[in-house]
């Protein structure tokens, strides 16, 4: 079998690219890496080009693009996913998403029968936690005992201890060919799987991931749990795991590429905002009319109608309703009871992502867009986020000029990000504005 596979990994501060080549002579992997979270977008494609050139290949020689899909740093996940999707669409080849935790577990190496608990730093005293077991199955060597989940750092070890007997029994059942079908779950709770006694809670776990160091005080493990050096996902591991997935026929169409997000607490509830948390829009300075207010369900029809009047490929009413239901920060500008502007923001762990913003064409150049951007920046500052990020079409020259005038800098390009009709795609310029907290100096 011949296979040329490019793997991208940017879920942490490390930007990594790996080129896996498999021929009749064997399998080789070459890697380039760079440390620097703010440089992923500009580094990734040049590094990929360098690897291909060194191997004497062109992008057209690739069979698939793999990417680390997370969970991890929000901005980094979007970079790898966006580049993989753009290359896949441009080259007409599939993509292979690989979970970050599985890539870390892979770095520990093959130890049949051993279980691995991977904890990655999610910031805000939380961790992304997942558990795996390695099996002597060349086609599917890793069994997922617990898919990535978000948990408080000080709860991670007690939670894992509680679930360890279940994981061990599941692993044992899989190796014996039983699985967890049907009523076996009840048997697991009692320590039996198909007549086999489940191992006790004293079963050894191998630990991996950077959270064990970041939250050392909160996550002190039992003495028989063994810490390993694997801390963050690496592009080489993504490449090897993607090869296995490729052989299993698990590659996907590039338009289906998506990051894996497990954090569901990206914004405060209405009750929390009323207590002054989470960027209460009422707490920002009073603006001249029109009035800035939180977006509510009754506003969705008007907002969707305004969006449709501005964009050839607009957000739908369902998109806006889903965003509100998910707790995203959103506001409207209202004048005489009519919506004359809106803005919607996702608060990620490391950046405020401006998802969509709009002002009627007849109200352009009246300062309404600046009011909405100022609200967005205020929300970010109240969450101690260092920057606001957005995407814009290069063809939207007026919007591009507006963002640049407002202090946003170009930091990268997402290839083939926007639809343009007739099956064509347009790149997106990624722009970011760094925020300066009150009392700090430039």
Describe the SSE topology.
Elements: E1 3-9, E2 14-23, E3 26-35, H1 40-54, E4 64-70, H2 74-91, E5 95-99, H3 100-108, E6 115-123, E7 126-134, E8 142-152, H4 153-175, H5 184-189, E9 192-193, E10 196-197, E11 205-208, H6 211-214, E12 226-227, H7 235-247, H8 270-274, E13 291-294, H9 300-310, H10 317-325, E14 329-335, E15 338-347, E16 352-358, H11 368-382, E17 387-392, H12 397-405, E18 409-421, E19 424-434
Parallel strand pairs: 1-4, 4-5, 6-11, 11-12, 16-17
Antiparallel strand pairs: 1-2, 2-3, 6-7, 7-8, 9-10, 13-14, 14-15, 15-16, 17-19, 18-19
Helix pairs in contact: 1-2, 3-7
List keywords for this structure.
19 strands, 442 residues, 7-stranded mixed beta sheet, alpha/beta, disordered C terminus, 5-stranded mixed beta sheet
Structure notes:
The protein is of the alpha/beta class. The chain has helices at 40-54, 74-91, 100-108, 153-175, 184-189, 211-214, 235-247, 270-274, 300-310, 317-325, 368-382, 397-405, and strands spanning 3-9, 14-23, 26-35, 64-70, 95-99, 115-123, 126-134, 142-152, 192-193, 196-197, 205-208, 226-227, 291-294, 329-335, 338-347, 352-358, 387-392, 409-421, 424-434. The strands form four sheets. Strands 13-14-15-16-17-19-18 form a seven-stranded mixed beta sheet. The protein has a five-stranded mixed beta sheet with strand order 3-2-1-4-5, sandwiched between helices. The protein is globular, with a radius of gyration of 24 Å. The model is unreliable at 178-202, 264-269, 275-288 and 437-442 (pLDDT under 50).
């Amino acid at each position: 079998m011949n296979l040329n596979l490019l793997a991208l990994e940017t879920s942490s501060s490390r930007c990594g690219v790996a080129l896996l080549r498999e021929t009749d002579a064997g399998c080789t992997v070459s890697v380039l890496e760079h440390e620097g979270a703010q440089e992923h977008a500009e580094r990734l494609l040049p590094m990929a080009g360098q690897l291909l050139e060194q191997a004497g290949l062109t992008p057209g020689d690739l069979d698939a693009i793999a990417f680390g899909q997370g969970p991890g740093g929000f901005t980094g996940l979007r970079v790898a996913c966006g580049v993989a999707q753009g290359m896949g669409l441009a080259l007409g080849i599939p993509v292979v998403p690989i979970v970050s935790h599985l890539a870390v577990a892979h770095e520990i190496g093959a130890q049949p029968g051993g279980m691995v608990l991977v904890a990655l730093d999610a910031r805000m005293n939380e961790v992304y936690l997942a558990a795996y077991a390695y099996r002597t199955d060349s086609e599917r060597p890793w069994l997922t005992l617990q898919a990535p989940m978000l948990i408080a750092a000080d709860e991670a070890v007690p939670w894992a201890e509680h679930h360890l007997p279940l994981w061990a029994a599941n692993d044992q059942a899989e190796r014996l060919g039983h699985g967890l079908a049907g009523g076996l779950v009840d048997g697991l709770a009692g320590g039996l799987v198909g007549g086999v006694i489940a191992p006790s809670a004293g079963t050894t776990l191998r630990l991996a991931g950077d959270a064990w160091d970041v939250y050392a005080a909160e996550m002190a493990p039992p003495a028989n749990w063994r810490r390993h050096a694997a801390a963050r996902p690496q592009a080489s591991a993504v490449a090897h795991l993607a090869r296995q997935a490729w052989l299993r026929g698990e590659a996907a169409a590039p338009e289906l590429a998506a990051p894996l997000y497990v954090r569901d607490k990206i914004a405060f509830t209405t009750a929390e905002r009323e207590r002054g948390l989470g960027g209460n829009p009422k707490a920002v300075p009073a603006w001249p009319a029109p009035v800035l207010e939180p977006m509510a369900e009754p506003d969705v029809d008007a907002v969707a109608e305004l969006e449709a009047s501005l964009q050839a490929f607009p957000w739908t009413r369902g998109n806006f309703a889903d965003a509100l239901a998910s707790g995203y920060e959103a506001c409207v500008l209202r004048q005489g009871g009519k919506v004359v502007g809106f803005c919607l923001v996702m608060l990620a762990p490391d950046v405020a992502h401006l998802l969509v913003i709009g002002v009627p064409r007849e109200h352009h150049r009246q300062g309404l867009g600046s009011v909405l951007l100022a609200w967005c920046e205020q929300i970010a500052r109240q969450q101690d986020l260092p920057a606001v990020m957005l995407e814009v079409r290069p063809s939207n020259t007026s919007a591009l000029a507006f963002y640049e005038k407002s202090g946003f800098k170009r930091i990268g390009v997402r290839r083939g990000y926007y639809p343009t009709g007739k099956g064509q795609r347009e790149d997106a310029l990624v722009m970011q504005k760094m925020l300066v907290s009150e009392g700090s100096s430039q």
